[in-house]
Amino acid sequence: MNLSWLRTIIPGFLLGFTISRLGFTDFNELHEMLLFRDLRLLFAFATAVSLTILLFLLLRSPLRFAPIQFHSGIIPGAILFGIGWAITGACPGVALAQVGQGLWLAWVSLAGIFVGIWLESRLFPEPPTGSGC
User: Which one of 85, 102, 105, 121 is most buried, counting C-beta atoms within 10 A?
Assistant: First the structure.
């Protein structure tokens, strides 16, 4: 019996549980963070990013990354992603955790994510080209 799926599902459950317990799935708490009224989630996010960077630095010798390709769609895409996150209170990972919590509005966020991905694939069928970093 192949149990390789456990390498994905167990960390996924742990991530969902953690972001739920921290409050990232609560729109009001996320709203307070985005307005810089409550910095608790911002510090938790900054800590997670810092630890991830540290982990990648420690493991960088076995990891091989392709050069980053910059193109004209990165800035508008990042702005749209940020606007969507601010409006819905959910990035893709948080939306999945909200679905797991039974928050029905998360399905609207997920639908928007999938429609956006589908539209991008229809409008720009070829991968963008740009200069390597």
Answer: 85
Query: What is the spatial distance between Cα 65 and Cα 46, in angstroms, rounded to a whole number?
Result: 23
Task: Give domain status of residue 1, yes or no.
Answer: no
Q: Hey, what are 120's tokens? A: 């991008």
Q: Domain for residue 43, yes or no?
A: yes
Q: What is the pLDDT averaged over residues 94-106? A: 90
Is residue 110 a part of any domain in this protein?
A: yes
Cβ burial 55-90 (10 Å sphere, 16+ → b, else e): eeeeeeeeeeeeeeeeeeeeeeeeeeeeebbeebbb
Any domain includes 25: yes
Overall pTM > 0.85: no
- More confident site: 5 or 64: 5
Total of domains in the chain:
1
- E-state strands within the chain: 69-70, 131-132
Domain span at residue 112? 6-132
CA-to-CA distance for 98 and 88, rounded, in angstroms?
11
